[in-house]
Amino acid sequence: MAKKAKAKTARTKTAKAKPAKARTARAKPAKVTARKMKTAKARTAPQAKITAQPLVVTLTGNRPIHEVAGDLKAAGLSVDQVLTSTGIVTGSAHPEAVARLRKVRGVGDVSPDHPVDIGPPGSQIS
Questions:
Q1: Which residues are 111's β-sheet partners?
Q2: How far apart are CA 49 and CA 66, in angstroms?
Q3: pLDDT in tens, 32-75
Q4: What are phi and psi of 108, to 5 degrees?
Q5: What is the pTM of this model?
Q6: What SS3 class is residue 107?
Q7: Where do the H-state alpha helices sit in the chain?
Q8: Do the Cβ atoms of 39 and 67 come closer than 8 Å?
Q9: Domain parsing of the chain, residue ranges
């Protein structure tokens, strides 16, 4: 009886055997770990990108404000607001353009703009 059992299992094994499928070469996505990302960034880290900074330009009042605003725009300022009653022009420019902005006729001062937040109404003052 042992011979029959062995013969039976041998047949089932051969019957179950399937021909191997031909595998196509497929590129697997590379597993990216935090460590790999860190070293990749360190190797290919570009120089710090210089972005435009917000500026407040105070005028002297010697020239009409809209003429000065046009000259500031030509010198590299992206004008946001022209505040005629106070003689101020707000906008943004790259840091290397600040020297050109200061040379515009009618400009008294060019300084960085600082955000101000007074908080919501009814909040406690610290």
A1: 56
A2: 32
A3: 665 655 555 555 555 667 789 999 999 999 999 999 999 999 99
A4: -90, -40
A5: 0.57
A6: strand
A7: 2-16, 34-44, 65-74, 98-102
A8: no
A9: 63-112
